[in-house]
Specification:
ten-stranded mixed beta sheet, three-stranded antiparallel beta sheet, motor protein
Length: 392
């Protein structure tokens, strides 16, 4: 399945500081896909797959992305990410509030609703990992939850497997048997994220976060096993120090954020113009998103904007960035193995982790190695390869 990355634009309501400044509305929604921004050089129109004014609520926004959850359950690599200047509503779109849940909690509920629908037809195993990129370092948020006093966590490496899917070597992966468990894991990890206050946002995300849900579906009838990955990415916002008042540590964070977003912009530019060399390796953020941009994923981008003329320049920059993303074409493909291949891969994974495996009780093979030691089975599907991309 080949197709362009879908892009949704979403405008938040006026913020308190914008009202205090007497700001005027500079964004107009002409129809369900078109918006116009009045900047210093006159009005400019943008057309996306959907354009949501501030009056559109969380439930309606989720309805337009719900089918992607089913795609992940079907074995596709799916990525949903939010982009925009600091304070533009990205975290509200992705996480929301207890009263107005965002895309992530609604996605979690939908995953288990789909799992219930497969009861009796397939066995569904759900697990997840949660990382953030802070000051160019990759942090395992689940490890931080389990080891809050450990100042030297294990090193993480960003890898790419033989199916061109990104994974994080060394990351803590946790299983979830219910929507409540998965929600609790997300909330616990989210509380470990780096946040801080600026003049434009009382609780500004100071990192990029990636919450990835792994969905393994073993169909009892076809004996096929699919593995889908659904990544929900909350990017930190681009900043201008003169507006945010960033200084000292906040300024250092802002510089790191802007550097990674600039690298992401370079990748988007290269992909949209179909250049031969794509600079994924220039930043850990672009390495993490390698399979979501120009990869094998079904990807949806939310570009979040402010309605105020005070932020018109940043709004225009964000929308121009999103317009480039819309030009990128991805090759979405299912990840699916036969039951036997899936079993052999599981054995290899356990052996790589140092476990002893009894192949006879595992459903095949014989213990014919020297001294009774288990030998790895022959397979046309070798263990995951990586491209050597270094992580945090």
């Amino acid at each position: 399945m080949k197709g362009k990355i879908r892009v949704f634009a979403r405008c938040r309501p006026f913020a308190g500081y914008e009202r205090e400044r007497g700001c005027q509305q500079c964004v107009a929604f002409l129809d369900e896909t078109t918006l116009e921004v009045r900047g210093s050089r006159g009005p400019k129109q943008f057309i996306f797959d959907a354009a949501f004014p501030a009056s559109v609520g969380q439930e309606e926004v989720f309805e337009d992305m719900k089918n992607l959850v089913r795609s992940a359950m079907d074995g596709f690599n799916v990525c949903v990410f939010a982009y925009g200047q600091t304070g533009s509503g990205k975290t509200f779109t992705m996480s929301g509030t207890p009263e107005m849940p965002g895309l992530t909690p609604r996605t979690i509920a939908e995953i288990f609703l789909l799992k219930e629908g497969l009861a009796g037809v397939a066995d569904v195993t759900i697990s997840c990992y949660f990382v953030e990129l802070y000051l160019d370092n990759l942090r395992d948020l689940f490890y931080a939850v389990d080891n809050p006093r450990d100042t030297k966590p294990p090193k993480l490496d960003i890898k790419v497997d033989e199916k061109k899917m990104v994974y994080v070597k060394g990351v803590v992966t946790k299983p979830a048997a219910s929507a409540e468990e998965l929600s609790a894991l997300f909330d616990a990890g989210n509380r470990m994220r780096k946040v801080g206050g600026t003049k434009m946002n009382a609780e500004s995300s100071r990192s990029h976060s990636i919450f990835s849900v792994l969905l393994e579906v073993a169909n009892r009838t076809t004996q096929k096993t699919s593995l889908g990955k659904l990544s929900l990415v909350d990017l930190a916002g681009s900043e201008r120090a003169d507006k945010t008042g960033a200084a000292a540590e906040r300024l250092k964070e802002a510089q790191s954020i802007n550097k990674s977003l600039s690298a992401l912009g370079d990748v988007i530019s290269a992909l949209s113009t179909e250049e031969k060399f794509i600079p994924y390796r220039n930043n850990k953020l672009t390495q993490l998103m390698q399979d979501s941009l120009g990869g094998n994923a079904k990807t949806l981008m939310f570009v979040n904007i402010s309605p105020a003329d005070y932020n018109a320049d940043e709004t225009l920059t964000s929308l121009a960035y999103a317009a480039r993303v819309k030009l990128i074409t991805n090759n979405a493909s299912k990840t699916q193995d036969s039951a036997e291949v899936a079993r052999l891969k599981a054995i290899i994974k356990r052996m790589q982790a140092g476990e002893k495996v009894d192949l006879d009780s595992g459903g095949g093979g014989s213990d014919d190695g020297p001294g009774g030691e288990t030998q790895p089975p022959a397979s046309d599907n070798p263990p995951a390869a990586d491209d050597g991309a270094a992580g945090g």
